Amino acid sequence: MSFADRRVLVVGSGSEGEALAQACRAAFEGARLETAVPDAMPAQWPAGHEPELVVLESGADPVALAELIAGLAKAAQPPAAILAGAGLSAGLVRGLLRLPRADVVEAPFGPRELAEAAQLLLRPAETLVVPAAPTGGRCWTVTGAVGGAGATTLAIELAAALAERSQGQKRVALVDLNLADGAAAAYLGASANMMLGRASQEPERIDAALLEVFASPAPGGFDLIAQARDPHGFETASAEAILRVLDVAIQVYDFVIIDAPRHRRGWTIDVMAGSDALLVVSELTVPALLAARALVSELEAELHDGPLPRIVLNRLAKRVFGPAPSTAEAEKALGRKAEGGLTSDWEAAAASVNLGGPIRSHRPKSRIARDVDDLVDRLLAAVPHSHIKAA
């Protein structure tokens, strides 16, 4: 979300008020930002000059702040409000809750926390064009049997292949659920705008409008819904919020590709059960193949009414002879047939990562692009049945 030309008022006093104003200038780049002290506020603003967002410094005069918050609540169209600082008064917070759009940002905080809070407050208030009826898009989930198997690369290439085929006629989204260390944004050179930790406080507010805030355009013609790397990402995001995001995404987009974490979470089975296809990516090494076999067996035992997991072999060797197992040998170790495979093309993969974007954008003749097209053909032939639902 851009804050350009938005009217932002920062209310505070002393050094803490100035520090808050500086943080707001960094957070709301391009905004028309003004500062004021609590006891010197106008009774009303001239028409067309009302602030859209008021940021209050919690250390200012509590009586004056309480009166100011009460005055904002009486306005015909109260602005969004953020109370920021340390030692937040319970009375001020209760008063803030009378406003239709308000949030609290506790110290220590920086421009990023202020911007995230403002995005969630301001965006739902805008008029957005939302589909009148759900589209019921298809949902494919990709996960790796071991770390570094290539699940993120496959998820990106699937999204890019679908976007290329649709030629702008259908919407495609890639959702990166590796909340602690997701790499999709870095691979694509795209923004990671999803804020599941904050959205988890009020998951019922996650709708098509908020999903537009979370999404960012990615090279290849699809949207990326990803979160900035956060070591505490899994702890701060609730299962209800994650499932709600996916439920809304399936209604908004024609195709949703999920890059799922390898390690099991409380919501993993719900996500996989609600998908139309579940792909397990494995390298052609003995440890990876054994891990893939074990993981698929576990998932088959737990996914009673979900899709059957399908194995995709990554980095298939072009040569006939070599140290790596052949496809036939790999399938023997797996105890099942593989759904498909991606030919090894290190140069194309490295170029796409370094330049930012899908492999097919930088190396359209790469064998990987053709292998992904073959896989997409098989997945599209299946009957869709996605049913991810929020708890």
Low-pLDDT parts are 125-135
Q: What's the helix-strand series?
A: EHEEHEHEHEHEHHHEEHHEHEHEHEHHH
CATH fold group of the largest domain: Rossmann fold
Task: Compute the number of structural domains.
Answer: 2
Major sheet attributes: 8 strands, mixed
Total strand segments: 13
- The CATH homology group name of the largest domain: P-loop containing nucleotide triphosphate hydrolases
Share of helix, binned: 25-40%
Task: Bin the strand percentage.
Answer: 15-25%
CATH top level assignment of the largest domain: Alpha Beta
pLDDT average, as an integer? 88
Quick structural summary:
It is built from 16 helices and 13 strands.
Descriptive overview:
It is elongated, with a radius of gyration of 24 Å. The two termini are 28 Å apart. 45% of the residues are buried. Helix 2 runs parallel beside helix 3. The protein folds into 2 domains: 119 residues, 3-Layer(aba) Sandwich (Rossmann fold), CATH 3.40.50; 243 residues, P-loop containing nucleotide triphosphate hydrolases (Rossmann fold), CATH 3.40.50.300. The protein is built from 16 helices and 13 strands. Strand 8 and strand 9 form a beta hairpin. The strands form 2 sheets. An 8-stranded mixed beta sheet has the order 8-9-7-10-6-11-12-13, with helices on both faces. A 5-stranded parallel beta sheet has the order 2-1-3-4-5, sandwiched between helices. The longest helix has 17 residues. The chain is of the alpha/beta class.
